[in-house]
Design goal:
This protein folds into two domains: 1-55, Orthogonal Bundle (Arc Repressor Mutant, subunit A); 57-86. The chain contains four helices and three strands. The protein has helices at 10-17, 21-30, 49-53, 59-85; strands spanning 7-9, 36-38, 41-45. It has a three-stranded antiparallel beta sheet with strand order 1-3-2.
Length: 86
């Protein structure tokens, strides 16, 4: 029976996320990734991975995206329509 991992290293998480180890370290330092320091290394609990790999957008993020979409359509709507017809 295969045993599932309980912890991931920074290197493993970077590979899963498709980012550099430095990016993972920066996110740990800023508090965006929960990690535990063991000696000189960090470990990330497997149970926290879904939140990191599939982060939910906040209402403020959604509102900002919606605002950007409306501005783009207002400013470039006709151009986008013409490009869609090509």
């Amino acid at each position: 029976m295969a045993q599932t991992k309980q912890y991931y290293t920074v290197k493993e998480l970077a590979a899963l996320m498709g980012v550099s180890r430095i990016a993972v370290f920066n996110r740990i330092k800023s508090g965006k990734i929960k990690a535990e320091k063991i000696g000189r290394n960090y470990i990330i609990q497997a149970r926290d991975l879904p939140d990191m790999l599939n982060p939910a957008l906040s209402l403020a993020d959604k509102a900002e995206i919606e605002k950007g979409v409306h501005k783009t359509l207002r400013d470039y709507g006709e151009t986008l329509k013409k490009l869609g017809q090509e």
